[in-house]
TrEMBL record:
A GO term for molecular function: DNA binding
Domain HTH merR-type per the UniProt entry, residue ranges: 9-79
Signal peptide limits: none
UniProt keyword list: DNA-binding
Superkingdom: Bacteria
Gene3D superfamilies documented for this protein: 1.10.1660.10
A matching Pfam family: MerR_1
Name the UniProt record assigns to this protein: Transcriptional regulator, MerR family
Alphabetized InterPro entries for the sequence: DNA-bd_dom_put_sf (IPR009061), MerR-type_HTH_dom (IPR000551), MerR_fam (IPR047057)
Length: 133
């Protein structure tokens, strides 16, 4: 679901579909990020504006794509740490951690293949020993 230029307000379900996160997470973020405060209708249902949706997408990018914890993401949203040197260093650290994780996964696959091959060799040697008596 994409933004509808004609529409002024969105329900929490619609925003959850747009952002690709569950509704309960949006409710949690509302309590954690003071900048995310959707209006309420007369029945108490949330009415998200395009500005609110942009904030949700910004928070999602900081947390899911850039790997920030909620406290740091909250500071960035408030503008306290925007474009700072520590922000750059954090991004570099996260990239390196991701590379290390990918290399560990590759090594795990190689190790698994080695184990399968060794088990096959062991079985063949046991078969030969059994035949020899």
């Amino acid at each position: 679901m994409a933004f509808d230029a004609i529409k002024n307000y969105y329900s929490i379900g619609e925003v959850a579909k747009i952002a690709g996160v569950p509704a309960y997470l949006l409710r949690y973020w509302e309590g954690f990020f003071n900048e995310l405060t959707p209006a309420r209708d007369t029945r108490g249902n949330r009415r998200y504006t395009n500005r609110d949706i942009a904030m949700v997408l910004n928070i999602k990018e900081l947390v899911y794509e850039k790997g920030y914890r909620l406290g740091k993401a909250s500071e960035i949203v408030k503008g306290v740490l925007r474009n700072s040197e520590t922000d750059h260093k954090t991004t570099e650290i996260l990239k390196l951690q991701k590379q290390i994780g990918q290399e560990k996964n590759r090594h795990g696959v190689v190790d698994e293949r080695r184990m399968v091959l060794l088990k096959e060799i062991k079985e063949e040697i046991e078969d030969i020993l059994h035949l020899l008596g």
